[in-house]
Amino acid sequence: MPKDKKIINMKNFLLFILLLFALQISAQEAYTKGDVFIDVQTSIGNAGVGYAGEIHYAFAPLFSVGAQFNSQSFNFNDKYITSFLPELTADFHFGKRATIDWYAGLSGGYFIWQSNDPYENAGNTGCVITPPTYDISLRNNHENNFIAWNAHLGFRYFIFKKVGINGQAALGNVRWFKVGVSVKI
Questions:
Q1: Pseudo-torsion of CA 155, 159, 164, 169, nearest 10°?
Q2: Per residue in 14-63, pLDDT tens?
Q3: For residues 92 and 168, what is the distance between their CA atoms, to the nearest angstrom?
Q4: Which residue would you say has higher pLDDT here, 128 or 168?
């Protein structure tokens, strides 16, 4: 990617973050001890596009723990490049905010390929079975299931008292950007 495009993309990202900080606040608090959050998200990352579900429990004024499940693929019809990732998470929340909850944390889990057999979806070309070829670095670097980890930064912005939007960016051996809906129960 040319340097000019990287600078423009970074400027757009920073503008988006500043816009989030500038949003109006209302009377309820976004995060308090004892809260339980359920998130439903869509994602894009180095394992393809997918969906995710998370549940988090605020066990302390600034800390929460949770579990999440992710499924990602470059082609959901091909088991060789479709994956599942159950994870446990621990998050630090950046103080009390009225409607926005910023957090950072760590996640760890086990990355499971739906199939480790590249011939499973191969086309038969007569006498020779040819496995499909993939230019997917995550799959090429991890032929089998593996332990996944990441550090992430996220937010929840509550539009209503118990319903909001959320986003999360993660860096590690599995990377993604997720957006979705968050419900406080």
A1: -30
A2: 656 555 554 444 334 667 888 999 999 999 988 889 999 999 999 998 99
A3: 14
A4: 168
Cα end-to-end span (Å), the chain: 43
The residue to which tokens 């400027």 are assigned: 11
Q: What is the 3-state secondary structure (H, E, C) of the chain?
A: CCHHHHHHHHHHHHHHHHHHHHCCCCCCCCCCCCCEEEEEEEEEECCEEEEEEEEEEECCCCEEEEEEEEEEECCCCCHHHEEEEEEEEEEEECCCCCCEEEEEEEEEEEEEECCCCCCCCCEECCCCEECCCCCCHHHHHCCCCEEEEEEEEEEEEECCCCEEEEEEEEEECCCEEEEEEEEEC
Q: What is the mean pLDDT of the chain?
A: 81
Q: Are the C-beta atoms of 46 and 111 separated by less than 8 Å? A: no
In DSSP terms, 59 is beta-bridged to none
